[in-house]
Amino acid sequence: MVDLASLSSPFQGMAVVGAVLAESLILYVTYGGLTRVAGEELEEAVRDG
Amino acid sequence: MEFLGVALTTILLFVAFGSMVGVIFGFFGMGSFLVTPALLVMGYDSRIVVGSGLAFVFGTAVTGTLRHRDLGQVDYRLGIFLIAGTVLGIEIGKRAVLVLESVGLAGFVVGITYVLLLSVIGGMVIMDAWGYSIEISYDFSGEWGNLKANLWHTGPELSLRDGDSVSYIAIGTVAVIAGVLSGFLGVGGGFLRMPALTYLFGLSLPVAVGTNIFAVMFAGAFGSFTWAQVGGVDLSIVTPLLVGSALGARIGSALTRLVDEDAMKSSFGFLLVAAAIAVSLRQIADLVGIDALRVISLGLLVSVALLVSGRVVYSGIAALRSPREAGVVRAD
Fold first, then answer.
1. Per-block mean pLDDT, blocks of 10 residues, chain B (332 long)
2. Is there a contact between B58 and A9 if contact means CB atoms under 8 Å apart?
3. ipTM score of complex
4. Per-residue buried b or exposed e for B178-208, using 16+ beta carbons within 10 Å of the residue's own CB
């Protein structure tokens, strides 16, 4: 694991921005899939009463 | 037990708090500014509070922008000029915090600013929910009209997507003020930029929302970059908060179709006031050295956030159940 504190200032800044961006994209894709499946199941459950 | 040098209970607390903030953000459209008070009452340094708050705002704005991208509700040209002014403002705000930090006043001043801001906005939301409508005049006639005409139409102007035009000076003024607040408090600044875009620049609400979140994403990226350079972003705080909030935001936004937002408005107002009280208690605890007050302030903030997000989720579940029960009655 990269120790952010050991990087020079601009690289430290870019590493943090990259890490937050990557995490957000991963979460967007992961939760997008999960909530789509959950939403479809919920719609089915409501439709079936 | 620790994970990457951070206590597991702390990580779980951040994930849980992030999910509450996410539900509130997804449902009410605001809420990421609750993170800064939470970090303040937990006793983090002001630079970690503001820097990590901005990194959290950046993360939530990325997912928000992705959700808005297909709706075509962004005025990109206005957004780019807003970003330029906001970036300048963030740098000013950051330098102000660092100057205050060098004289040992950063935590106190950021805390007091937060208390005032949350109290005023929370009070207005509660009064609005209780039917005491607050009329803020945006009728720029007479002297106000002259002032607005002078500021809004001095020098070169930018044509807005909704047909109107506004001077670069006005755009820059709004952007820099919002940026200073972002850099100083670690917030997105949407609570200032949104009224300016709708009431002052005349943008329609959907375009204002899309343009604001577009600007917040780039402002958050710059804020994270600039604060990270001075060691102000703690990823062990930001990562679990984002893990919780990304899921919570999806639940909260889905519940807007089931639950009436107006019925929840007073709860949101009380949440803001509770956050102001929690930060005040923390400030008093630091001044007089009473540890119990620190625990009470954190407990107050987390429990009220839990109550409000829980009420939203419970109302959503109740709304889902009621049509089904009605269907059973009809079947009988």
1. 75 92 82 81 86 91 76 82 91 90 87 87 84 60 60 75 81 90 82 79 80 86 90 91 89 81 83 89 85 87 91 88 51 35
2. no
3. 0.75
4. bbbbbbbbbbbbbebbbebbbebbbbeeebb
